[in-house]
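Input record (one chain):
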Amino acid sequence: MLFGYAKMEPQYDYNPDKAKQLLKEANFDFNQTVRLASPQGRYLFDTQVAEAVQAYLQAIGVKARAESL
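The corresponding structure, as predicted from the sequence alone:
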C-alpha cells in the first residue's frame, strides 16, 4: 500500500456502446459540436489530455473541438 493510495469504488469499464446508448437515451444531439476548452502552458500534458478526450468522444459519435485557452 502506498501513501495517498485509495481504491476507487465503483469503477466503470470502457464501454463506448454503452456511452452512445446513454447519450441517445438523454436525447443528445449528435449533430452539434462540443467545445473542449483546456488551459495551456501550466501543465505539460494539457493539450494531450484534451486531444485524448476529443478522440474518445469522436469514437462514440460526438463531434468535439479542442481549444487551448
